[in-house]
Amino acid sequence: MVPNLNVGDIVVINRNTPFDSLNVGDMIVFTTPGKTKEGAHKTIMHRISGIETYENHATITTKGEGFMVSR
User: Fold this and answer.
1) Which of 13, 47, 64, 65 gets the most CB atoms within 10 Å of its CB?
2) Which alpha helices (H) appear in the chain, and where do they start and end?
3) What is the dihedral of CA 71, 29, 37, 65, to 10 degrees?
4) How far is CA 58 from CA 5, 8, 30, 54, 63, in A?
5) What average pLDDT does the segment 12-22 reach?
6) pTM for the full predicted model
7) How would you list the strands of the sheet with 57-63, edge to edge?
């Protein structure tokens, strides 16, 4: 995610961003629906690479860029 984020940067997450305000190129943070064998969800940060709308349903496509998120 360089040049926007570098190793050691801190990310502040706004949990109240409406879906309709997302744009291609935005970075989003989300948790996996499944859990690890330790019982936790993984936190993932990806960049939005596409947004498609079909009959009132929107789908976003994301692309990981080798960035690991820790909590």
Assistant:
1) 47
2) none
3) -100
4) 27, 33, 17, 6, 17
5) 82
6) 0.70
7) 27-35, 41-54, 57-63
